[in-house]
Amino acid sequence: MTPRHRRLIDHIRQHGDTSVEELANILGVTTQTIRRDIRELEEARVLARYHGGVGIPSTVQNTDYDQRLSMDSEAKRRIGQLAAARVENDRSLIINIGTTTEEVSKCLLQHKGIRVVTNNLNVALILSDNPEAEVIVAGGLVRKRDRGIVGEATIDFMRQFKVDIGIIGVSGIENDGTLLDYDYREVRVTQTIIEQSREVWLVADHTKFGRHALVRLGNIAQIDKFFTNLPVPPEALEAFEKAGVEVVVAGPS
Description:
- The protein starts with a helix and ends with a strand.
- It has helices spanning 3-15, 20-27, 31-43, 65-70, 73-85, 99-106, 121-127, 152-158, 184-195, 234-243; strands spanning 48-50, 53-55, 92-95, 114-118, 133-137, 141-143, 148-150, 163-168, 172-173, 178-181, 197-203, 215-219, 225-228, 246-249.
- Helix 5 (73-85) crosses helix 6.
- By secondary structure, the protein is an alpha/beta fold.
- The mean pLDDT is 90.
- A hairpin with a 2-residue loop joins strand 1 and strand 2 (53-55).
- It folds into 2 domains: 3-55, Winged helix-like DNA-binding domain superfamily/Winged helix DNA-binding domain (Arc Repressor Mutant, subunit A), CATH 1.10.10.10; 66-249, Rossmann fold.
- It is elongated and about 60 Å long.
């Protein structure tokens, strides 16, 4: 983000929803420039436009699944390719809910001898096309909006396994390394996945940094490898270095 972007965001965080005209006046630029800034920040999911102004996106409700599928799709594809390339044949995996984890599963279609436990029906459907993969689907409540499976039955099911790699996604990453998501039921399942995995790999694009969500999932210190599309922002770098997590950046194709 540019210095002007940061000033714009800081003002909205301090004062709440603000009109385009007021932002232009405060920052000393034209309304056309502010609208361009807002469009860029909205695409990065840092800001959201509301009736009569601009504000911080909701911390209690995630973006619709169909919209998330198209957002940052190229970055997610590169992240998926990079993470899948690190998975060796004949490994056991747990893959959780998320559009980026689904990109990882698409890149596992040529892997041999893998066993995948998942609470994501989209992942199960994708990997069912790999004749060399055994796919195990968790029981529980199916969320209609994204075909994710959550609930106490899902947690009990996951506790039966101890896998080589858990591949997870998140909705937000705070500068202090806190990992966030929106649904407490999904968070409890993901926490169980972390416990049942010998290694934990986080796959998330750069827009997750600074994105606020309601439920605390854990901390970056619980992650072994972090696959993303841009270097970690300076404001979060200290937390990542302290945690000793390996950061793997999927650069432009």
